[in-house]
Amino acid sequence: MATKATPARKRYTGIPLSAAMILVTLGVVYGDIGTSPMYTLKAIISGNGGLPTMSQDVVLGALSLIIWTLTLITTVKYVLVAMKADNHNEGGIFALYSLVKRCGRWLIIPAMIGGAALLADGILTPAVTVTTAIEGLRTVDFIYSLIGDNQGIVVAIVICILCVLFFLQKAGTSTIGKLFGPVMTAWFVFLAAAGLMNIGLDLSVLRAFNPVRGIMFLFDGNLNAAGLMVLGNVFLCTTGAEALYSDMGHVGKPNIYATWPFVKVCLILNYLGQGAWIIASSGNAELAAIPDLNPFFQMLPEQIRVFAVLLSTFAAIIASQALITGSYSIVSEAVRLDLMPHMRINYPSETKGQIYIPLVNSIMWIGCICVVLLFQTSAHMEAAYGLAITVTMLMTTVLLTMYLSKVRHKTALAVPFAVFFGAIEFMFFFSSLTKFFHGGYVTVIMSFALFVVMYVWRRGTAVERTQTVYLPVDKYLDQIFDLSHDEDYPLLADNLVFLTNDSSFDKLDRDILYSILDKRPKRAKAYYFLNVQVTDEPHTHEFIVNDFGTDFLFKVQLRLGFKVNQRINTYLYQIVADLMERGQLAPQNHKYSIYREHSTVGDFRFCLIRKMLSPETDISGFDQRIIEIKYFIRGFCGSPARWYGLENSSVIFEYVPLFSKTKRQHKLSRRALEEVAPQVAAKLAESRESAEEDEDIFSVQMRDEREAQAEEAMRGLVGGDTASFRPLVIDEEDEGDEGEIEDGGSETVQEGEE
């Protein structure tokens, strides 16, 4: 085995704390949770019966629920507990599952449910936040005079903004974060300042820090008209908590630790300011008459309200970013866990955690546009908002409990953690179920569809692995050597390259060997079996080779940094040249060339093998459906030829059956030609007579031309004749038997399809 020497690599340790990354963190991570003051108390007021019902006790109880929800769910569960459970500095529910998957085989189900729900909410959130912000422009008189109540204009503006937002994703979260960071910093400062300006209206709001106030409000029907259902609105204050955990890999754990206290203080100050204003204004009949009263804007002086609306619009646009970048991380982890198909992943910056997945970006973009067109208004969208996230939070609690008890061996902490947070989140989930028939069904449908994709991919992979056989390469060296020198077969290429997912150095997938030796034997001067590995370092360029003691067969592992372009054809020239320099491969001199100096490296052909399911495959009906759906999904995710820059190379796509075992087929019987020839001649004559009787206007118009063609064929061709347009039935009296055979054939196919 020959190894290309490279400098020692350092272990990837995550993104360090820095002023620049703190700014990026404020711009990327907190958009969703940072815009919650715009609608949380508004929703609570509306759900409790309007401004006149908001007495001091009601306001203090609602504020207490908000403060302690932020503290318990976001600070304690996610910042203090969940962020400790990182997988190589990556966060999110799939990264968490990677840590606990050995603790129980069943844990993949909550991971799939939670991941699907979070991705579905990631599609809904940009549509909700941007639409809410644009509708807020109507509170400014001169803007309202321009757009009025025409919702079509609002929808058009929202769609344009979403298109720009998703287009910017390819620039990377680092670039976007630097753009959004200053805006979000100004936003949080504005939240704190607006809250402080109004807290003085009623300092009693400070009593909301007492959790008893929240408990009393929740269970006192005289104060809380909505009962436990009010939690569905309170939950809006913490919808960005799961995205905070998922975005950990983008910005680094230290930068979240440094910024969350500042963000939380700004949020609480604003909520307290809104609460003080509500208490002071509860008896104002003019304000009570305003439909959908929003205390966030109403508490501000008229002269700064325009600025507040514009700033909140930018903040709402930025809020979408947290869910988009979090979705990239979730999908990347799902691909690594074989829960989703392989996709092209780009790394726009020097940081491995900051990724861009073009296919995911396109799907989310289309999904957001469809949600906007379907719901039209933010009021309809908000009915579905947060329902899926409660499911994700419950699943995260299950996985975190297993992590604490089985991985960290802290059962004494895991049990109360599960009971406490499970109870809280189940109440949030139960209260959010009231949104199901008012729009929540859309989120549920999207979540279910994503879960089906994960289930199909995982189940399909398991079925495929039952048929995967790895064979020792050294057992086939003699055959491959003889084939490479067998002139009875044409030379396919000087260098024949197979791409493989197998990272071992001494075995090969049976299908590759089958392709070389059995399925039209492929003669080449040298064979390469290439496996590509992406490293945690950005600029790794190295390879490892096992030559099996030969000069014609090489298994190569190409190790490339995540920032390195994976156009492998250019690297193969270097690998072959290195093998020649070391005497492991004979020069492949070109006899013909347009260049004055002929290259010593021959031509390349790449063979890409795709497994296919044939109708004859002996497989249960359910598993066959799973495989068919998996391969259908695979078709949408691109080809390795594009991922590895082989579009302009000579590529062979070869399809091999997934299963070697096939069903028992009907045995054919042979009939002598002499037996059927007279019968066939008679039927042919009868068919021609019937054809003339059945002529229609189209065939009559073409009769002269057809007869002229027949005469020319008789003169110019040996045995020239013309064919009848009617299908020839060989044996009419046996049609029933043929039907049985056909039925039996379709029965066989259907048996495999069930």
TrEMBL record:
Alphabetized UniProt keyword annotations: Cell membrane, Ion transport, Membrane, Potassium, Potassium transport, Symport, Transmembrane, Transmembrane helix, Transport
Domain K+ potassium transporter C-terminal: residue ranges: 495-652
TM segment ranges: 12-31, 58-80, 106-130, 142-167, 179-201, 221-245, 257-280, 306-335, 355-377, 383-404, 411-430, 436-457
Cellular compartments annotated: Cell membrane; Membrane
Reaction catalysis annotation: K(+)(in) + H(+)(in) = K(+)(out) + H(+)(out)
Record region (Disordered): 709-754
Name of the protein in its database record: Probable potassium transport system protein Kup
Gene field: kup
